[in-house]
Design a protein that fits this description.
single chain, alpha+beta, five-stranded antiparallel beta sheet, about 45% helix
Length: about 375
């Protein structure tokens, strides 16, 4: 510990033991008056707490200080008023809706941890370590046995975790990885709804297959990423998606509408691009290979090409309307009707209008070139 770190720690006034735990002390910043908590953990966790400090998240306690003092790591972290899930579930079981909302918040924070470089594995997700603060925000509060995933390592050296939530690999069968946290989250989902662990009582309804797949003994049979689990929960419970997620999707949709990229190229997905290229080539071939006649007589090559081009443009515009290029579809009221049959009739009407315009342009060119 250098002089600067020593000075930073001296800025916190000790207020006594916190929650009657020996390694937790309540502190107050002497200048700002901020109430916080000091804990002492293993120095091996320094890189993890450095990551948490450098990458703050609303679902994780904010880390103010992370300083090595001798053979311990001193952490000064955010003090949160609220209740942990263990106390809440002991009073009442949660509804499926409330459970999924909490699980989705935990998925968000686990995504950040699992996508770190190297990935951070919490290894101790349980009801006691999840707090609901006074503003109803979900907080993951303990990383004292977290670890980073080490490529090529077969199993963990030290066996840690809470027995009821710990995946089999935490007992030395494999190395823990992101699927270990998925296992614990599956156990927690079951616990929030039933007040019991899966070995005692399994949940029912839509969450049953989610809990089962999350808690398979073999990690290969579980959800392989937290994004996969999150996606399943959102699909099963769309009503539980947070408002900010809707806003994000709306912003992404708005960006797509404002983009000049052609339909099929906006998502950046390779197979969609390939299908789009084939589709555009097919439309182009059909339009420019058609034979155009007047009174049974073929038009001259110039007029034929002009009419083929007009028809080709009309079909590209139709594709743009169907896929809402630059917001074109949104500007046509009957194409936003809730009734599917009305929308189908609307698209047919748009096609006839576009072909009529194309034919009118061709007639004008014929008169001009006559």
């Amino acid at each position: 510990m250098n002089l600067e770190e020593e000075y930073r720690l001296s800025e916190y006034q000790d207020l006594g033991r916190f929650n009657n735990k020996e390694n937790l002390r309540l502190k107050r910043h002497k200048i700002y008056g901020t109430i916080c908590v000091e804990k002492k953990v293993s120095p091996a966790l320094k890189h993890i707490y450095d990551f948490l400090k450098s990458n703050p998240d609303p679902n994780i306690l904010q880390i103010y200080e992370c300083i090595l003092v001798g053979d311990v790591l001193v952490i000064i972290e955010e003090y949160v008023t609220g209740r942990n899930l263990e106390d809440i579930v002991c009073e009442r079981k949660l509804s499926e809706s409330d459970t999924v909302k909490i699980a989705l918040e935990l998925c968000k924070v686990l995504k950040k941890l699992h996508n770190a470089n190297p990935p951070v594995i919490c290894r101790d997700i349980k009801a006691e370590n999840v707090m609901i603060d006074n503003k109803n925000r979900v907080k993951l509060v303990d990383f004292s046995i977290a670890r980073t995933f080490q490529q090529g390592k077969r199993r963990d050296t030290v066996l840690m975790g809470t027995a009821e939530y710990a995946a089999p690999e935490q007992f030395g069968y494999f190395q823990t990885d992101n699927r270990t946290d998925i296992y614990a989250l599956g156990i927690l989902i079951n616990y929030m709804v039933t007040g019991k662990f899966p070995v005692e009582q399994m949940t029912e309804g839509r969450l049953l297959p989610v809990v089962r797949k999350s808690t398979y003994i073999d990690p290969k049979e579980r959800y392989q990423t937290i994004e996969e689990l999150e996606g399943v929960l959102k699909k099963l419970y769309p009503e539980c998606i947070a408002r900010e997620d809707y806003d994000t999707k709306a912003n992404e949709k708005q960006k797509d509408i404002k983009s000049f990229k052609l339909p099929g190229f906006r998502s950046g997905v390779l197979w969609k691009k390939a299908v789009a290229v084939l589709g555009y080539l097919m439309v182009t071939y059909m339009c420019f290979s058609m034979e155009i006649k007047r009174d049974g007589v073929s038009l001259n090559p110039v007029l034929t090409r002009i009419e083929q081009t007009a028809i080709w443009i009309s079909q590209l515009v139709l594709i743009g309307v169907i896929y809402n290029y630059r917001g074109w579809r949104d500007k046509i009221p009957f194409l936003k009707n809730k009734e599917k049959c009305v929308r189908i009739v609307g698209y047919i009407a748009v096609e006839f209008i576009l072909l009529f315009i194309a034919a009118l342009i061709c007639v004008l060119f014929e008169e001009f070139l006559a």
